[in-house]
C-alpha cells in the first residue's frame, strides 16, 4: 500500500472510531509521525494532503528540514524526549513541543522562543504508567504542579494540554485505563482554571491503539507505522 492509501485508511478508521464514540472526527487531528523517514517519503504524505507531522529527534529533523523548506504550511511538532541544551535549535525548527516534562526544559524553551520573538505551543507529557524508563512527569508530581504554576511567567509558551505514551502491550484495550486516566487528569486541571493554562488538547493514541484513544477522548493521534510502514530499526 502507498503512503497515500495508508493515510486514507487511517483517516477512515479515525472517522469510524469517532462515530462509535459519538464524536465528530473534526475534533481529532491526525499527526503523521515521520521520524526516521526520509524527506521524499514525508513529501509523499504532504502530497496526499497531510500537514501535521511529528518528529522525535532535533538533530535528525534539522538535517531533513532543509529539503522540505518549500512545504510552507506543514506543521512540525517535537514529540520525543528533549534535553534542555537543544532548546534553542528546537525553537528554530518546530512550531510546538508536545513532550515538555520539566520546569527546567520549559524555561529553556521559553527563553529560546523569546530570543526568536516567537511563541511555542507546548503539551505536558505525562508518564501515566509510572514506568521508570519513560519520560514524562508523574500525574501527581511536584514537577507537574511546578509546570502548571510556571505557565503565566513563561510568556513565550502556550500551554495547550497533555500528551502520553502508555505502557506498550499487544492488546490495544489494555491502554484504555491509561487513556482514561489522562483524560481525567486533563479535566481536573481544566477545572482549576489556572491562568495561562489551556487544557484543550489530549495527544494520545499510536498506530496500534489510536481507535481506543479516540473512544477515550483523544484530540490528536500520533501515527507512524500505519502510515509509513515499519520503521527500519537503527
Ligand atoms: C514513534 C512515536 C509514535 C508513533 O508510533 P507508531 O507505533 O509508529 O504509530 C507516536 N508517539 C511517539 C511519542 C513516538 O515516539
List keywords for this structure.
234 residues; alpha/beta; 9 helices; 19% strand; binds pyridoxal-5'-phosphate
Percent of residues in beta strands? 15-25%
How would you spell out the order of helices and strands? HEHEHEHEHEHEHEHEH
Q: Based on the coordinates given, report the CATH architecture.
A: Alpha-Beta Barrel
Mind telling me the CATH class? Alpha Beta
CATH superfamily: Alanine racemase
Largest sheet: 8 strands, parallel
Count of extended strands: 8
SSE class: alpha/beta
Number of domains: 1
> What helical percentage do the residues reach?
25-40%
Number of helices: 9
Quote the distance from N terminus to C terminus.
23 Å
**Regions with little confidence, pLDDT below 50 for 5+ residues:** none
Give a verbal description of the structure:
- 38% of the residues lie in helices and 19% in strands.
- By secondary structure, the chain is of the alpha/beta class.
- It has a single domain (3-228), classed as Alpha-Beta Barrel (TIM Barrel).
- The chain has an eight-stranded parallel beta sheet.
- Helix 2 (39-47) links the parallel strand 1 (29-33) and strand 2.
- It is globular.
- Bound molecules: pyridoxal-5'-phosphate (PLP).
- Pyridoxal-5'-phosphate binds next to strand 8 and helix 9.
- The site of pyridoxal-5'-phosphate (PLP) has 13 residues, from strand 8 and helix 9.
Amino acid at each position: 500500500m502507498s503512503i497515500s492509501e495508508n493515510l486514507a485508511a487511517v483517516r477512515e478508521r479515525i472517522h469510524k472510531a469517532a462515530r462509535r464514540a459519538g464524536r465528530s472526527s473534526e475534533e481529532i487531528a491526525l499527526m503523521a509521525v515521520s521520524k526516521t523517514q526520509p524527506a521524499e517519503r514525508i513529501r509523499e504524505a504532504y502530497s496526499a494532503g497531510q500537514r501535521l507531522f511529528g518528529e522525535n529527534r532535533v538533530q535528525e529533523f534539522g538535517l531533513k528540514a532543509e529539503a522540505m523548506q518549500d512545504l510552507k504550511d506543514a506543521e512540525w511538532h517535537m514529540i520525543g524526549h528533549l534535553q534542555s541544551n537543544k532548546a534553542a535549535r528546537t525553537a528554530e525548527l518546530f512550531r510546538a513541543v508536545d513532550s515538555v516534562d520539566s520546569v527546567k526544559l520549559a524555561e529553556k524553551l521559553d527563553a529560546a522562543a523569546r530570543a526568536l520573538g516567537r511563541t511555542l505551543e507546548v503539551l505536558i507529557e505525562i508518564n501515566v504508567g509510572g514506568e521508570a524508563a519513560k519520560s514524562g512527569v508523574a500525574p501527581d508530581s511536584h514537577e507537574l504542579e511546578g509546570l502548571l504554576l510556571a505557565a503565566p511567567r513563561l510568556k513565550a509558551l502556550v500551554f495547550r494540554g497533555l500528551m502520553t505514551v502508555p505502557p506498550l502491550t499487544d492488546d490495544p484495550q489494555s491502554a484504555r485505563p491509561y487513556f482514561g486516566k489522562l483524560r481525567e487528569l486533563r479535566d481536573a486541571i481544566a477545572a482549576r482554571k489556572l491562568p495561562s493554562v489551556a487544557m484543550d488538547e489530549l495527544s494520545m493514541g499510536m498506530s496500534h491503539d489510536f481507535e481506543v484513544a479516540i473512544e477515550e477522548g483523544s484530540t490528536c493521534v500520533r501515527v507512524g507505522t500505519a502510515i509509513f510502514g515499519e520503521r527500519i530499526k537503527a
